[in-house]
Amino acid sequence: MNRGDFPILNQDNMIYLDNSATTLKPKCVIDKMLDYYEKYTSNIHRGEYDNAIKSNKEYDEVRNLVREFINAKSSEEIIYTSGATEALNMVVFGFFKNILSTGDEVLTTKSEHASNILPWLVLKEQKNIQVNYIPLDDNYELTLENILKSITPKTKVISIAHISNVIGDIRDIEEIGKICKEKNIYFVVDAAQSVSHIPIDVEKSNVSFLAFSAHKMLGPTGVGILYGKKELLDNMKPLKYGGGMNQSFESDGEYILKETPTKFEAGTPPIAEVIGLGEAIKYVMTLGVDKIHEHEYKLKKYLVDELEKIPNVVVYNKNSKSGIVAFNIRGVFSQDTAIYFNHYNIAIRAGNHCAKMLKDNLNINNTCRISIYLYNTKEEIDKVIEILKNSQDIFKVVI
Amino acid sequence: MDKNIRREIILDHYQNPVNRGLVNDNSYIYQNTRSESCIDNIDMQLKYEDGIIKDIVFDGEACAICTSATSILIKTLIGKSLNQAKTIIENYKNMINEKEYDEKLLEELIVYDEVYMQPNRKMCALLPSNAIDKILQIIDQKSKD
């Protein structure tokens, strides 16, 4: 789909299949940011000249676009962050640190990204809470049944990825949200891998907090979003203090902060990047998130079906419904496989993909990951299949 | 060196490395080494006695270059004195980092003389030598104590 919109794809024969790490950028996003830098660079807040007024307007409008994109109730529930990682840290240390106490339980899974486990483990040290893992099924996926089995009277939070970043299983956040509502549990969703891959509706899913990064959805690096229910955000403390987020401060130590969401946005934000994110959202909304998902899953399924015919390739997640394929060539270290792919100008990723606990389930430390997005084609997947079919000579290429 | 012979030696040491498997023996000095930039992760143990490196073993997960370099380094260093080992490692590092080195000292390690052509693999080749380096420093320190 829409390959012509992506300048990087026009310059060489690179096959880009590392979209879970970051996505390519369409020209409209690049141009929109360039426009800010070339035509109206200025800081936001209180600028009384034309360019500053324009910056402010462009910057503020994105909040409403995000609201519409994830169906939040109001744009006050949208906070600009530096990315999903910062957003999740804000939730853990700005909100839950103040309300959880000894013995309270946070449920997560072993297939989470570091940014949705490490903050909890640090909070566990600080507040003596419990962090427990909902068991994954035989396909390394999270099921509603296992969630229900894992919930105890102590469970205060369920914190999971919408789509896990190695297995790529799509979690049914609408149903999980219902369970959380019924049992009075806070529901935190890491949407880094799902935003712009499948539709998100925070209202319907009863999400307490949701985090994502712009760069994984055709936008720039350095900016992300934290969504939170307004009443929760009002009780959340900022982790950063400085300009733009305060009403007043006096020499006697008195200070007054601004309201949600401004109180969370100290300092000059990544203005061009926020504006770029807005353009990415417009682009994705025009294409239709459903269509993107349909396209990437079709290619994923085709790839997995073909890989199953290659005896020396093992696929770890054939059932998951996203565009992610985790695999290894038998007897070959995943990094060597990634180097082999690079020889054919194909970008994939090897490693533990920041999901370092998943090894407990997979019984292997490292995998190769192919992650598909809207601009990938069947011809590209055919090339992957071809080089994996001919991988007997891999070491002639790698060494 | 002929490209095919070089590849054969590296591949042989990757698929059948010497001394894989750690030992439960306190007379060995242990060191882990891993790369910040990739996923190679190697544990090494070295036994030093009477001024000689008596044994080195390793375990871990790493790519073809890193695993084979560990194996060849082990093979090269066993039986050497502390100073000989230091000189070999210094020359090995120089070779990988495109500095002057004495190839006569490097024995089979010479198969990595073209790793510099793939800059992102230099770290893979250097990883085991960094671990040995740290162990040799520990030995040095102990002899001063």
Structure, explained:
The complex is a heterodimer of chains A (399) and B (145). In chain A, helix 3 crosses helix 9. In chain A, helix 5 links the parallel strand 3 (105-108) and strand 4 (130-133). Chain A contains 14 helices and 15 strands. By secondary structure, chain A is α/β, with parallel strands linked by helices. Chain B has one domain: Sufe protein. Chain: A, CATH 3.90.1010.10. A three-stranded antiparallel sheet of chain B has the order 1-2-3, covered by helices on one side. Chain B is globular. Chain B starts with a helix and ends with a helix. The model of chain B has no long low-confidence stretch (mean pLDDT 92). The chains are: A alpha/beta (399), B alpha+beta (145). The A-B interface holds A 333-336, 339, 350-352, 365-366, 395-396, 398-399 and B 6-7, 10-11, 14, 38-41, 61-65, 67, 121.
Main sheet specs of chain B? 3 strands, antiparallel
Q: Structurally, how many domains make up the residues of chain B?
A: 1
Number of strands of chain B: 3
What integer is the average pLDDT of chain B? 92
Placed side by side, the strands forming the largest sheet of chain B appear as: 1-2-3
Q: What does the overall shape of chain B look like?
A: globular
Classify the fold: give the CATH topology of chain B: Sufe protein. Chain: A
In total, how many beta strands of chain A?
Answer: 15
Question: Biggest interface in this structure?
Answer: A-B, 14 and 16 residues
Overall mean pLDDT of chain A: 95
Alpha plus pi helix count of chain A = 14
> Could you tell me the radius of gyration of chain A in angstroms?
22 Å
Q: What is the share of helical residues of chain A?
A: 25-40%
**Architecture of the largest domain in chain A, CATH level 2?**
3-Layer(aba) Sandwich
Q: Structural class of the helices, strands and pairings of chain B?
A: alpha+beta
Helix content class of chain B: 40-55%
Order of helices and strands of chain A: HEHHEHEHEHEHEEEHEEHHEEHEEHEHH
* Strand percentage of chain A: 15-25%
